[in-house]
Design a protein that fits this description.
Chain lengths: ~650, ~300
């Protein structure tokens, strides 16, 4: 009980951290400092509770009436919740510190308070989502989270682009929420209450309906393809610390929803897992292929988030297949890998979005192809970005590798090692994951190369300078997290194991993670790699001591006047891959043709827009809007008319329910 | 212990000889005498004694490229069994580490190339990362076949399985992934028909284009690392296409040496009788490798 009280205080401190700033003058920095202090207090208290639960203290829970009909204030913290609470308590706090330097109240008097208020509410609501054990309480927290994210992301709503992205987000999130309404209604119909507890019996049809509705409803939030349409725009147009929290933590709430609901459903059927596996494979490959084609740094990172959600879905799918087929090891490796990737992604994607904020601030643009050579101006940001990039490409010895390693080992097992029979779906998922890995490496080489390396492509970055410590310190913490989890993954194993056992008790049959896969060997391998690299560096140093090292110009085939604009840009680097995946990406190219011996100045432009949004959703919405003009009569734009609609709907529902009983 | 020492010695000392054998084979085909077998060793030693020119555009990434590549390739070399012996480092799941170490090397090689700010090196990087997206899934299908045959996720057991359990049922999949792996080997080690390591036109190269600006000891490390990569991937291929062992260490060791040198001769012959493919046709070849490996897998689990 005490632990829970502290947790609720922590959530309240985070949730209302933006309130004091609203009462202070619009340009005052004090409010923002108070907000960060409250976030830090909430974070420390919350982490203390999570640590206590990890140390073996009884998992606290609470279940009281709270005035809403049909609903109880039921909250509980089990290992699964604790696992998702960790990023919720860490990333928003770091983002708040980052915001002190990045989104200064004095520079953003118009929207600073609103962003701070919405940011805090977003963090608090996410924590509440993870511990809620009642359908209505969950939906309430879910809706606060969705709307707070809207206000935080649409900070610069004086720009058309931002407003448009905000609208798409609002529509998408509410379609998702509608599915969740339907899902909880099915849940109540089957179990008799909104309480989210295990142990209920379900008919096959009902459990499948709940599963499909959960997959769609939470899929919208997580960004599973093709439900990802809101994600690139919203992430690109939000302030970077908000993007970091949205991408690093809020998308994971969708993952949490899917994991939690499948944990509550008593059975799983084979096609559930196969479906999630297929969706995960498509999401990961398509997500990173779209990322490859982007020129906007933050849109690229957003698509890469979609890819990572796909990777997490691969793990969840594997675990579902394992549960239905009775393979405890598949469950352990699949869900263990997926949950570890939830952490990993929240670490490196937040790091990369923080980096992106610093880069965009320095370069004055989000266009990758206008940057270049920033490594000389921002050496620290560049080093931190390199850590994030290596981690997100799942390269050893950083943390991304560990989670993908677990997933690969699980997927390899599904083919049935030796004489066992297996399911070939896992093998194709493994190949998809391999392709994703190679594409991710290509994508982040492109970003690292085009943004930081080479020579500047425009004047913009020439006066750039390193960001202040308030921005660098949060990045450094996250980078250390990436390295720590990558080199010592065994430390994460106990929480992962208990979370997986919460999801499916049969996973206990597989024993510990360390018993199934030699996690400790990754430490050895990582350290060996470091030793080798150190030795090679030493040999190089010794050799060079006796040699001359000269500085010179880059070799350009004897051409006398190379300029920064002659470098390979990010787009040209990705051109071949975009052409290979043209069926999916539908790239558009605008070029003027050249004529004669002395052609006129010409231009070329290529664009990869979102296929689902721009070729499917928008045309359909426009067509519907044009075909049904009469329906606009309902849309008066006056609030009291809408309140009237709500009233009418209530009356109709009451009458309907009355007739039913 | 002795086996490990031998493994490390072969891994460190043999690779340049393979380059020498390839060059000699090509010379023989062209009717020339060719450079001595040991020429690559002399070249590497000479480069180590040279000075270094660093472009003013570059940062630490430029130097990290060769260092990380060499370290990662050597570690990958410790994960595979050579001849009849076991790998010095072996654990369940080392196959993924093996594949991703080459990914790490690729990440840093291509980044180092972009660090120079040269369009040629950008071209090389673009090609390298593009072709990797096709050869990586092919490699994983091949690994899936070996995992299924051996019932293990340890490279040592996986690669020794074809020799231990050779039967009619696994022969066809092994042939298919053998062809696929050979194409992957040619692509990954920058051989004709994918890339031409001896060409001198920057526009048409992949790997050489990426390392144009590396000189002296750094260039020496790059050449050495790519020779080690040839040895490592060649050894993997030999386990698949030549799964014959005597079971006696003193016989298997020389057999392995003969096989790997024979493979170098075969690569030399391929380089002599073929022309380099047009750059836009290389993806078709790699898709072919992917299909060979994929069908090998399907044939095995049907």
């Amino acid at each position: 009980m005490n632990g829970l009280l502290i947790l609720l205080i922590a959530i309240a401190a985070m949730g209302f951290s933006g309130v004091p700033a609203c009462l202070l003058p619009a340009r005052s920095a004090t409010g923002q400092r108070i907000a960060t202090a409250l976030m830090a207090i909430g974070s420390v208290l919350g982490l203390a509770v999570v640590a206590a639960i990890l140390a073996g203290h009884a998992a606290p829970s609470l279940n009281v009436m709270w005035g809403l009909p049909q609903s109880r204030f039921a909250v509980a913290v089990d290992p699964l919740s604790a696992l998702f609470l960790l990023p919720v308590f860490i990333v928003p706090m770091l983002g708040s510190v980052y915001g002190l330097g990045y989104w200064k109240q004095s520079e953003h008097p118009a929207n600073g308070c609103r962003v701070g208020l919405a940011y805090g509410l977003l963090a608090g609501a996410m924590a509440l989502v993870v511990i809620a054990r009642d359908g209505l309480l969950f939906l309430l927290a879910w809706e606060v989270m969705a709307i707070a994210a809207y206000f935080a992301a649409a900070a610069e709503d004086d720009k058309t682009e931002v407003r448009k992205a905000g609208w798409i987000y609002l529509i998408a999130t509410h379609i998702g929420t509608l599915c969740l309404f339907a899902m909880f209604s099915c849940w109540r119909h089957a179990t008799g209450s909104f309480l989210l507890e295990t142990g209920h019996a379900f008919t096959a049809v009902m459990s499948s309906s709940v599963f499909v509705l959960a997959l769609i409803g939470f899929g919208f939030k997580a960004g599973l393809m093709p439900l990802h349409v809101w994600l690139p725009g919203a992430h690109a147009n939000a302030p970077s610390h908000v993007s970091a929290v949205m991408s690093g933590v809020m998308l994971k709430m969708g993952v949490y929803g899917i994991v939690r609901m499948t944990a509550l459903l008593p059975v799983s059927e084979l096609w559930w897992g196969t479906l999630v596996l297929a969706v995960g494979g498509i999401t990961s490959v398509a997500g990173i292929a779209f990322a490859m084609g982007q020129r906007d740094l933050k849109r690229l990172l957003a698509y890469s988030s979609i890819e990572n959600i796909g990777i997490i879905a691969l793990g969840v799918g594997l675990a579902l297949i394992g549960r239905s087929q009775g393979h405890a090891e598949w469950v352990l490796l699949g869900l263990g890998g997926a949950l570890l990737h939830v952490w990993n992604h929240s670490l490196f994607k937040s790091l990369l979005f923080f980096n992106a904020g610093a880069i965009i601030h320095a370069a004055g643009t989000r266009e990758i192809d206008r940057m270049g050579g920033l490594a000389k101006r921002l050496p620290r940001v560049m080093a931190l970005f390199a850590v994030g990039a290596v981690a997100i490409c799942a390269l050893p010895p950083l943390n991304g590798f560990v989670s993908e390693w677990l997933l690969y080992l699980g997927l390899f097992r599904t083919v049935g090692l030796g004489a066992e029979t297996g399911t070939p779906a896992g093998a194709f998922a493994a190949a998809a994951l391999a392709m994703t890995g190679a594409l991710a490496a290509a994508c982040f080489v492109k970003v690292l190369g085009a943004v930081f390396l080479g020579a500047p492509r425009s004047e913009a970055g020439n006066h750039a300078h390193e960001p202040p410590a308030t921005m660098l310190a949060p990045m450094a913490v996250l980078a250390c997290g990436c390295a720590g989890l990558g080199l010592f993954p065994l430390a994460a194993a106990p929480l992962l194991e208990s979370a997986v056992r919460t999801w499916s008790p049969q996973a206990a049959g597989a024993g510990t993670l360390a018993a199934v896969v030699p996690l400790e060997r990754l430490t050895v391998a990582g350290l060996t790699l470091a030793v080798f690299a150190g030795a090679v560096t030493l040999i190089l140093k010794m050799t060079l001591r006796q040699q001359t090292v000269r500085a010179g110009l880059t070799w350009d085939c004897g051409y006398a006047r190379p300029t920064g604009r002659m470098q390979y840009t990010g787009s040209s680097l990705g051109d071949a891959l975009v052409a290979l995946t043209a069926l999916l990406l539908w790239p558009r190219k605008f070029r003027t043709s050249l004529h004669g011996l002395f052609p006129r100045p010409s231009s070329f432009k290529s664009l990869v827009s979102d296929t689902v949004l721009d070729r499917l959703v928008m045309p359909v919405f426009h067509a519907v809007g044009q075909r049904l003009p009469r329906l606009r009569v309902l849309q008066q734009g006056q609030t009291h008319v809408y309140v009237l609609y709500i009233l009418i709907a209530m009356i109709v529902l009451l009458v309907w329910c009355g007739m039913g009983s | 212990m002795i086996a490990t020492i031998l493994h490390v010695l072969v891994l460190l000392l043999l690779p340049p000889l393979l380059l020498g054998v390839i060059a000699k084979t090509k010379a023989w085909f062209a009717g020339r005498v060719g450079a001595p077998f040991l020429q690559p060793y002399y070249d590497l030693a000479k480069l180590m004694r040279r000075g270094l020119v660093l472009s003013t555009t570059t940062t630490w990434v430029f130097r990290a490229g060769p260092i990380v590549t060499l370290a990662a390739t050597l570690l990958a070399g410790l994960l595979i069994p050579m001849g009849g012996g076991d790998a010095p480092i072996a654990f369940a799941g080392d196959l993924i580490l093996f594949a991703y170490l080459f990914g790490l090397a690729r990440f840093f090689t291509t980044s180092a190339a972009l660090d120079t700010g040269s369009a040629f090196e950008g071209m090389g990087s673009a090609r390298e990362v593009t072709f990797a997206c096709l050869s990586e899934p092919a490699l994983f299908f091949a690994l899936l076949v070996l995992a299924k045959i051996s019932g293990s996720l340890t490279l040592t057991a996986m690669l020794q399985a074809p020799a231990n359990t050779l039967s009619a049922g696994i022969a066809a999949p092994l042939v298919l992934i053998g062809i696929g792996l050979f194409i992957v080997l040619l692509a990954e080690t920058c051989r004709i028909p994918v890339d031409d390591p001896t060409t001198h036109l920057e526009l048409t190269m992949i790997h050489e284009a990426m390392v144009l600006d590396h000189s002296g000891p750094l260039f020496s490390m790059i050449l050495y690392a790519s020779a080690v990569k040839l040895l490592v991937l060649g050894t993997v291929l030999l386990h698949v296409i030549a799964p014959f062992r005597f079971g006696q260490a003193w016989l298997d060791g020389p057999l392995y040496l003969a096989e790997i040198l024979g493979l170098a001769v075969v690569i030399g012959i391929v380089e002599s009788v073929m022309a380099r493919l047009q750059m836009r046709r290389v993806p078709y070849l790699l898709v072919g490798a992917l299909l060979f490996c994929g069908f090998g897998f399907i044939l095995l689990i049907r």
